[in-house]
Amino acid sequence: MSNVKRGGITLDDIARETGLSKFSVSRAVSGKNGVSEETRKRVLEACDRLGYERKASKNSSKKYVLLILPRHDSQDNSFWMKVIVGIENGLTRQGYSLHLKVVSDKEDEMTSVEAQEAAGILFVGYKSLPYVDKLAVYNKPMLILTYPPYNLFPYDTMHFADREGACALCEYLINNGHKRIGFYGSLERPSMKYRFNGILETVNRMGAELTHVWDMESYLNSFEMIEELKRMKEDNTLPSAIVCSTDKYAQSLLIMLNSIGLTVPQEVSVTGFNSDFDEAQSIPLTSIGYSRRKYGIQVADNLLAKINNPGRAVVSMSVIPKLVIGATTKSIL
Hints:
This protein has 333 residues and is an alpha/beta fold. Helix content is 40%, strand content 20%. The strands form four sheets. A six-stranded parallel sheet has the order 4-3-5-6-7-14. Helix 8 (162-175) packs parallel to helix 9. The longest helix is centred in the last third of the chain and has 17 residues, at 292-308. The protein starts with a strand and ends in a 9-residue tail after the last strand.
């Protein structure tokens, strides 16, 4: 093994600095298997600290972005698949390709060479967060498509303004006479929690009431909820409007309400969330949404800006969605 020397620093220098063998240092620097991610991180940090210049890959002329997609999200093509199409479109315009890597919760090994040779790395959703620090050792421009998991998160993030969207939706309902509001959907994802927080904030600020929360973590099947809706109908205690965490939940709720003879919006107003404005709606929901393809293009543009200016400050970007008034709500003033 030759004593590779770049910038005055050799692999021997890195080996002495880290207390590792030259063999381990060489494999870590070249991105080969045979060393742990912890060792690789330790070696690459020493390279940066000492000023060792890593050799460019033979494939460096092939410009691509690596996208880390948790298997959990790859199985739900209602959102991320359309965003990824937009990302690919945006990258192609600038001469880049997209390499998609699907990872599972149990998977601990990443494709080191792919990460090392990528021009930048995208992380999709909150379940991709465990992989961020693992790949940060390659010092690539990165963009994480979810909310920062803690204050002063040191990486660029991009997400929708879910709380603000929920506030605007509730303001519309309350301004149209709805003082008793319910919530139906899941609180599993950070985005859904932000939507729920926006609802709480707005009903409290505007003197309305969140009368009931049907969250999927408590109501595991629709039968329980249908029975409760029946009782509330008989007792005349139903909220006048129900905000759903997604359009999918709103469509499910419409079916349940119809099954017990409740008409929308005559007896109950229903809203969705996270509509795709590129998609024709079979049910014209009142909802908050955006073009998922255009969002993907914006993602690509923002990562490319980071690639072209790697020294810029870390930013958290919030994309503002739009409120669309459909046929599932009415004024009760």
